[in-house]
Amino acid sequence: MGFPGGGAGGLGIGAIVVILIISWVTGINPAILMGGAEQMTRGGGSQREEQADPQTQTRRKTAPTDDSGRFASKILGNTEDVWSQILPNQTGKQYTPTTMVLYTGGTRSGCGSAQAAMGPFYCPLDKKVYLDTGFFKEMEQKFGVKGDFAYAYVIAHEVGHHVQDVLGILGKVQARQQQASSKRDANALSVRIELMADCLAGVWAKNSNDKYNSLEQGDIDEAMNAASAIGDDKLQKQSQGYAVPDSFTHGSSEQRQRWFMNGYKSGQTKSCDTFRTANN
């Protein structure tokens, strides 16, 4: 099918290619990404101005001034401390810290336009995590998920994608997805990479707690509630009344909870190899 004007809804071919790359890596529905990009280019949707101020990056001299920004920066710093220690010890690979870009409404990423509707994501092209500052409030309002550790789990999941990138896993899986013979097979690969990121978030949580004794009673329950709320099966049932497993891109609620706990119980990156198991 042709795209009038050289792209879908006025988007250029280059923008469409970038959106498809993000979709392959993050598992986000490309239709959602294109819709967000169209709103960005047309000025529609939220009607908020795009904010691409480089001062929104958390790895900088000036710390964020709002509560959510300070919290996200704190969690990111913790992941740096933990992964910089355990990744070389467990894999022999040095950890290169990522950067988190906090924004409101929309900004630009190395993978193209970022928009609040896309949710948090990791861009392997610029090695950065993108997070809209209103996402935590959206989690509470839309999914009934709240609690500091629920939010920390989301950030740790995206950092988990960066760990995959550092280990060279993300690029290999992306190549396999592009060669997949069907959308079903490509989705299955996406599920495995997302569940691995959940597991790596659990590995971080275990090692962070061992190092700082930072977890309180109920923290893991908060992470489990978040993992359950954003499972593909639950989201699909809420939106259309039924689930279609072949269309899953992140995994079911049960899978996401199980793989997080797998990483948390072991504390070892080797326990997160979702590609060596017959079933997810």
Q: What count of domains describes the coordinates?
A: 1
- Integer-rounded radius of gyration: 18 Å
Uncertain stretches: 1-22, 28-56, 58-62
Distance from first to last alpha carbon: 35 Å
Structure characterization notes:
By secondary structure, the chain is mostly helical. 55% of the residues lie in helices and 8% in strands. It has a three-stranded mixed beta sheet with strand order 1-5-4. It has a two-stranded antiparallel ribbon with strand order 2-3. A hairpin with a 4-residue loop joins strand 4 (121-123) and strand 5.
Main attributes?
280 residues, two-stranded antiparallel ribbon, 5 strands, disordered N terminus
Question: How would you summarize the topology of this molecule?
Answer:
Elements: H1 13-26, H2 30-42, H3 67-91, E1 99-103, E2 106-109, E3 112-115, E4 121-123, E5 128-132, H4 135-143, H5 148-166, H6 169-179, H7 183-212, H8 219-229, H9 232-240, H10 253-266
